[in-house]
Write a structure and sequence with these properties.
It is a single chain. The protein is α/β, with parallel strands linked by helices and 130 residues long. The protein has a single domain, classed as Rossmann fold, CATH 3.40.50. Helices cover 56% and strands 14% of the residues. Strands 3-2-1-4-5 form a 5-stranded parallel sheet. Helix 1 packs across helix 2 and helix 5 crosses helix 6. It starts with a strand and ends with a strand.
Length: 130
C-alpha cells in the first residue's frame, strides 16, 4: 500500500530551517522501503514554494533527487472536478484546493496514510506518518 506525500512533508525535507525538517528526514529514513505517491498539483505547489523561498539549489534537489522517490499520479479531469465539487460544497476556503485533490485521490486509490504535517489530513480521517 502506498503512502501519500504532501507538500508540507516534501517542503520540510528541503528546508533545513523548517520546524519539521528533522522529523521529516527521520520519517523518510525509517520508511525508505515504502511506496510514496503524490499528484502533479502537489509537485507544482512544492516546486513553486521551493523556488520562491529556498532558491535554485533546493529546487534542483527537489527535481533531481527527492522527486525520484515519489510516484506521481496525474490529476484527471474527473478527479479535478470531484475536488471542485468538494471545495464548493464545503462553503469554506479553510482547506486548500490542492488538499481537496489530495483527499479525493487518496480515497479513490484506497490510500489511508499521509506523510504530512497538515492537520487537515487527520481531520479528513487519514493517518499521518510522523
Amino acid at each position: 500500500m502506498a503512502t501519500f506525500a504532501d507538500t508540507s512533508a516534501l517542503f520540510a525535507l528541503l528546508d533545513r530551517d523548517d520546524a519539521q525538517h528533522e522529523r521529516a528526514a527521520t520519517v523518510l529514513s525509517e520508511h525508505r522501503q515504502e511506496r510514496f505517491m503524490t499528484h502533479n498539483y502537489v509537485v507544482l505547489e512544492t516546486l513553486a514554494l521551493t523556488q520562491a523561498r529556498l532558491g535554485m539549489r533546493e529546487t534542483r534537489q527537489f527535481l533531481d533527487g527527492l522527486l525520484g522517490l515519489v510516484e506521481i499520479v496525474w490529476v484527471t479531469a474527473a478527479l479535478h472536478a470531484s475536488a471542485v465539487t468538494a471545495l464548493l460544497a464545503s462553503g469554506s476556503g479553510a482547506i486548500s484546493f490542492v488538499d481537496r485533490v489530495s483527499f479525493a485521490l487518496m480515497r479513490e486509490q484506497g490510500v489511508r496514510t499521509a506523510f504530512a504535517f497538515d492537520r487537515h489530513f487527520r481531520r479528513e480521517g487519514f493517518t499521518l506518518l510522523p
